[in-house]
Amino acid sequence: MSRLFLPLFLLLLLVLEGVALDFIPSQIIENDWILVAHWLFIFLVLMTLFYDLEHTYYSVLFAIIFGLMVDIVYTNVIGVYMFMYGFTIYFVHGMSKMLHTNFFVAFLLSAVGISVVDFGIYLIYSFIGISQMDSSVYFTNRLLPSLVANLIFFLILYVSLKKKMVKWSKERFDIKKS
């Protein structure tokens, strides 16, 4: 079941990211904040930390596949999200080998990952001329509000899915207690 659940939940998050902005209160929109939902990425970070083993890279594969799907569905440039999601999840996977996976590490890696992904996308779009936003406006009106909103979503996902992902990982990879 877990083999089927992970891609289906990623697909659900892909769809929900598109309608997430419809649920934002109007007071936030009046503040000129630009919120970008990176829910799919947050789930991939949790999958990296609590599902993948040191020698498995399912989360990187899903990051590349679903990053491409984000590019196809929501953007006009193919490969930006695919590259940034894949690169950043690979970085998180490497960091998870060196750090103990607990709440604080997961929170920190999610915050750093969201910042790297969002800033990388901004840099690529600025370089090819799609984004005309000034960097100071980007940091205050897009990166910080998006980071806070996505970390709130991280807390919800962490509480509800951490134990299930560890259980599915044990089932999937046949980990026996010693």
From TrEMBL:
GO biological process, one term: regulation of cell shape
Assigned keywords, A-Z: Cell membrane, Cell shape, Membrane, Transmembrane, Transmembrane helix
Cross-referenced InterPro entries: Cell_shape_determining_MreD
Transmembrane annotation, as ranges: 36-53, 60-83, 103-131, 143-161
Principal subcellular localisation of the protein: membrane
A Pfam family assignment: MreD
Topology relative to the membrane: Multi-pass membrane protein
Superkingdom of this protein's organism: Bacteria
Cellular compartments annotated: Cell membrane
One GO CC term on file: plasma membrane
Family membership noted in the UniProt record: Belongs to the MreD family.
Protein name, entry field: Rod shape-determining protein MreD
Lineage: Bacteria, Bacillati, Bacillota, Bacilli, Bacillales
